[in-house]
Amino acid sequence: MPELAEVLFYSKEWAPAVGRLVKRVELHSRARVFRGCDPTQLEEGLLGKKLLKCLTHGKQMLFEFSEAWLGIHLGMTGELKLASSPYDAKKHDHLVLHMSGSSVLVFADPRQFGAVRFSVGPAAPPWWRELPPQPIDSGFTLSYLTELVQRSPKQPLKALLLDQSRFPGIGNWMADEILWQLKLNPQTLPADLSPKAIRSLHAMTKKVCEVALATIGVDWSDPPAKWLFHQRWSSNNPCPRCGTKLAKEQLRGRTACWCPKCQRLPKR
DNA sequence: CATCATGTTATAAT
DNA sequence: CATTATAACATGAT
Fold first, then answer.
1. Could you tell me the distance in Å between the CA of residue A110 and the C1' of nucleotide C10?
2. Residue among A195, A211, A185 nearest A142 (CA)
3. pTM for this structure?
4. Lower CB count within 10 Å: N or C terminus of chain A?
5. How many other CB atoms are there within 10 angstroms of residue A23's CB atom?
6. Is the shortest CB-to-strand distance from A98 to strand C under 7 Å?
């Protein structure tokens, strides 16, 4: 599920426990989600610590504890839940933090493409500090985007949008949404984008992020009714704009969904 | 039983 | 070296 806005929504699930102390750490140490850290160190390092902040950046989440940092990536099927004690861990609950008061913080992920990271110290870990600017950040300027686009002139635009080092937080549905809104074919080559088209890409990337954050990110409510979002997973899927049956095809190993009539390759 | 899934990464091939 | 394709990961839904 999780792209930019879904990640924000899930991160806020744990927010009610800000100010609480970790009383007990429950984890399945052999779960694949712990491949990026030492579960024992995590358990010992979190015990007794106070949750200070819930942060997100793109698809990454970082939970700041007193002198300790818990990073979580939700992968394809991860989610965070807030429960209250007593709580019995479910089958796919890999990390359960029993906090003071009665709040229980749960990280569940059936497919385990998600990952947990942990570090101790006064400063946020390097991987977090080095994340590239998100489309909604001030650093994501038109000139920054122009350079990004020009650096990969021959990579299909859809693939570019999915690159987390350039568009952190954009996932499969958001990339398809941006391209559909712009009436651009997923195979569009960045080299064929005019300066005007790059300006549109800049504005639309920001807009799709902003609207998604204001709907899904706030309360999981639906994005606007005419968005491609509502059609891309349905079986009978007409283009919301022209009614043409949407096309679906693998591009770089992911399903691209687009309208073959509205979304054209720009003339060069 | 077969296919597909809102993600990332290692490895192979070009 | 840069780019692209493929497989792998583990599980549930259709």
1. 7
2. A195
3. 0.96
4. C
5. 14
6. no
